[in-house]
Amino acid sequence: MSFIIERLLAWVNRRYGKKKSLPDELKDYFDEEKYAKMEAYRKERASFSLFSSTLSTGIMLVLLAFGGFGWLDSELRQVTQHYIWLPLLYFGVLGLSADLLSLPLQVYDTFILEERYGFNRTSTKTFFLDKVKGYLLGAIFGGAVLALLVWLVRELGNDFWWVFWIVITLFSLFMSFFYTSWLLPLFNQLSPLQAGSLRDKLEAYGRGIGYPLDKIFVVDGSKRSSRANAFFSGFGSRKKVVLYDTLIEGTSDEELVAVLAHEIGHYKKKHINNGIIMSVIQTGLILYLASLLIYNGTLSGALGAGQWSLHVNLIGFSVLLSPLTGILGLLSNYISRKNEFQADRFATSTYRAEPLGTALKKLATDNYENLHPHPVYVFCYYSHPPLLRRLRAINEAV
Ligand SMILES: [Zn+2]
After folding, report:
1. Which end of the chain, N or C, is less surrounded by CB atoms within 10 Å?
2. CB 265 within 8 Å of CB 206
3. What is the pLDDT of residues 220-237, one digit of tens each?
4. 263 C-alpha vs ligand 1 centroid, how far in Å?
């Protein structure tokens, strides 16, 4: 059902964009050749996403209709019956097969589609190493969290949900606290921003608004892609600003200060804290709902299992939950778009509108962002408002 709605919206969105021409605000950023290339890229992306989502929905439907999840459970029970090892093995096998099945698609996406339009900078070595590191981290952290869940379900019965809620909240706060010091360096190289005019301007802006910017880092995003980004990480005194080298490459100092002012806006307007609170509440709600369903024997049976089995029920639960996660996704996108406007306003009022506008134009056009998405499509999927709406809001604020 959601698959049909999704494809319908994608189709409406494509038709909507076709009728529009290049807006005046962006005439300086495109020549005819670049505009045609962008159209071609977007068309190829759309076909690729149609193909991959049809494939994954098809596989999921077959597995559900023919009791594939239950069948895997019975097979693995011949390997181990242990209450912790069995679910670990079950999700390990499922996760690994899903990733290996989608591997050809991932390779096509990175080395053919993105490559053809000049976005890809990933070497085969980086791609392979990323996979290995991803598997290892997934096995260690995913395995630990799953083992804990299974153990709590067995020891505490129905009360498992709030204990697990507390532990998982502490764990994710801990992880985001150490993200830039432990996790990010496993995949990227992080170095302090060199002294110079950019650093001076960023620090001067920070002092002006009472937000000390002494931990500014540059990360080698260019190792994987030409796409640019910037983000904040950590809390309190451990807070760090991380800029992609690809962002520094193509933008002026003033544009970078404006981008950073926008990011600080998210912090000052409490978007970051509110986001954390929202996700903690969401996790609690989902875990409570899980506590109502995971002991249900019929659910395992419906997925083809011969007996009640926690891990099969978790799969069933995630399928039943998808309408709710869809609604929560709409809500969080709505809030996120409002926050983007607020952060833009913060940047224009504490810095300047003009460099923020040009930075946004550069980023959007370099990434071949859709300039004319359908409003309904934006409502459903966009976490950021479309470029032209942001530019209009920035100009109105001045
Ligand atoms: Zn933002």
Report:
1. N
2. no
3. 999 999 988 888 877 766
4. 6
**25, 174, 217, 218, 234 from 180: Cα distances, Å:** 37, 12, 10, 11, 8
CB 13 within 8 A of CB 374: yes
CA angle centred on 360, ends 250 and 46, rounded to 5°: 95
Amino acid at 2: S
Res 251 pLDDT > 80: yes
Percent of the chain with pLDDT over 90: 74
Neighbours of 40 (CB within 10 A): 13
What is the per-residue pLDDT for 342? 97
Residue found under tokens 């009728």: 19
Q: Residue 11 Cα, ligand 1 centroid: separation in angstroms?
A: 28
Nearest-angstrom CA–CA distance, 146 and 152: 10
Who surrounds ion ligand 1 at CB < 5 A?
Answer: 340, 343
What amino acid occupies position 197?
A: S
Query: Residue 26 and residue 153: Cα distance in Å, rounded?
Result: 56
CA of 267 to the centre of ligand 1 (A): 10
Element (H, E) at 191: strand 190-192
**Cβ atoms of 182 and 188 closer than 8 Å:** no
Question: ∠ CA(63), CA(67), CA(71), 5° rounding?
Answer: 105
The C-alpha torsion from 332 through 95 and 234 to 255, rounded to 10°, is: -70
Give me the helices (H) in 241-309, please: 245-250, 253-268, 271-293, 297-302
